[in-house]
């Protein structure tokens, strides 16, 4: 039985989460915390299997608490936030960068029509994250300079010159994407289409946050919009993302694929159909097998396929399945994916 520490300044929210996790999923709640300071102390004292963390709390907020816990007592953390305002979502994204594993929408009371679906997602995510091995973060120290280790990249497979890049990520994706896309210059000579599995209410805030931390402009994809190089297009909530023959965005309300809408498989299949061997597909950290069937289409069309390696993935799920299917040209650590993309477009 997994143990959980619930962190939230609202007694009502704590009780709702307790009921969901204990009565519906069999977790054992071993403690509650009302603010970040208390969360850090109880994480060190109780050693829970997983922590649910609110963001907006008095005193030490959830972002700072996450940073401290990942330094003092590394524990899987799931952000559970009630706010969909951009500022709070950006703080949640920073918490993911500090070591939290996922972000979910805080459920309303049990009489709400949204309660059942949100509760199911919380149970599924918290249960999965309780088994993730997390690493201790180091406290940042001021230094006079840092030495970067430069590693030689393998030559890209000899396929077509890339005209469009498509990326799929899920659990652990936002900070990983910030790392990969942050390596690309503002004049990157290809458009980038992105599917990030995420609670729909957070997608717009995620795009705004990503736009603020990488050189390339980031925007939510709009139907029929012409795609331009040097721009990242994020799949909108509730619609599959694809491209047309005329290099325009095509949003589809087709049913979910492998439980996802937007789905990576739809994106990759669309890109393969329109760009063939001039397409690249990147599958990154995350649970399940979304994207694999679509990536097969890119591979069969002569395009370039890249998977994030196990060592740098928060959850080695989608990429693992793609590698086992033998449809991946390069398996790379996180700090090499952006560099490889730069080589592929020149």
Automatic annotation (TrEMBL):
InterPro entries for the chain: CheB-like, CheB_C, CheY-like_superfamily, Sig_transdc_resp-reg_Me-estase, Sig_transdc_resp-reg_receiver
Active site, renumbered: 170, 197, 290
Location of the Response regulatory domain: 3-121
Main subcellular localisation: cytoplasm
Boundaries of every CheB-type methylesterase domain copy: 157-346
GO CC field: cytoplasm
Modifications the protein undergoes after translation, according to the UniProt entry: Phosphorylated by CheA. Phosphorylation of the N-terminal regulatory domain activates the methylesterase activity.
Regions crossing the membrane: none
GO biological process assignments: chemotaxis
Catalytic activity: L-glutaminyl-[protein] + H2O = L-glutamyl-[protein] + NH4(+); [protein]-L-glutamate 5-O-methyl ester + H2O = L-glutamyl-[protein] + methanol + H(+)
SMART domains found in the cross-reference section: REC
The name this protein goes by in its record: Protein-glutamate methylesterase/protein-glutamine glutaminase
Organism: Rhodopirellula maiorica SM1
């Amino acid at each position: 039985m997994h143990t959980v520490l619930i962190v939230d300044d609202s007694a009502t929210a704590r009780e709702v989460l307790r009921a969901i996790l204990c009565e519906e999923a069999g977790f054992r709640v071993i403690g509650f915390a009302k603010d970040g300071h208390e969360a850090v102390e109880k994480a060190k004292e109780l050693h829970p299997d997983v922590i649910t963390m609110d963001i907006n709390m008095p005193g030490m907020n959830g972002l700072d608490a996450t940073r401290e816990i990942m330094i003092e007592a590394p524990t899987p953390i799931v952000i559970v936030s009630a706010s969909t305002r951009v500022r709070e979502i950006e703080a949640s994204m920073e918490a993911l960068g500090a070591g939290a594993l996922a972000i979910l929408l805080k459920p309303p009371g049990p009489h709400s029509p949204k309660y059942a679906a949100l509760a199911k997602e919380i149970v599924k995510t918290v249960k999965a994250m309780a088994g993730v091995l997390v690493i201790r973060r180091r406290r940042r120290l001021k230094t006079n300079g840092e030495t970067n280790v430069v590693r030689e990249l393998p030559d890209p497979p000899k396929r077509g010159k890339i005209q469009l890049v498509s990326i799929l990520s899920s659990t652990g994706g936002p900070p990983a994407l910030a790392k990969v896309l942050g390596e690309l210059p503002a004049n990157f000579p290809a458009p980038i289409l992105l599917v990030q599995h995420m609670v729909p209410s957070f997608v717009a805030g995620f795009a705004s946050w990503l736009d603020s931390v990488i050189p390339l402009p980031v925007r939510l994809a709009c139907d029929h919009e012409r795609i331009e190089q040097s721009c990242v297009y994020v799949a909108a909530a509730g619609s599959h993302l694809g491209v047309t023959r005329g290099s325009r965005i095509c949003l589809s309300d087709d049913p979910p694929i492998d439980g996802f809408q937007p789905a990576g498989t739809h994106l990759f299949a669309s890109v393969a159909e329109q760009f063939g061997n001039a397409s690249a597909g990147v599958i990154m950290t995350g649970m399940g097998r979304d994207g694999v069937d679509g990536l097969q289409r890119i591979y069969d069309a002569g395009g370039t396929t890249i998977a994030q390696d196990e060592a740098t993935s928060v959850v080695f799920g989608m990429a693992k399945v793609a590698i086992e299917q033998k449809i991946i040209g390069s398996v790379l650590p996180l700090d090499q994916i952006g560099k490889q993309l730069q080589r592929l477009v020149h």
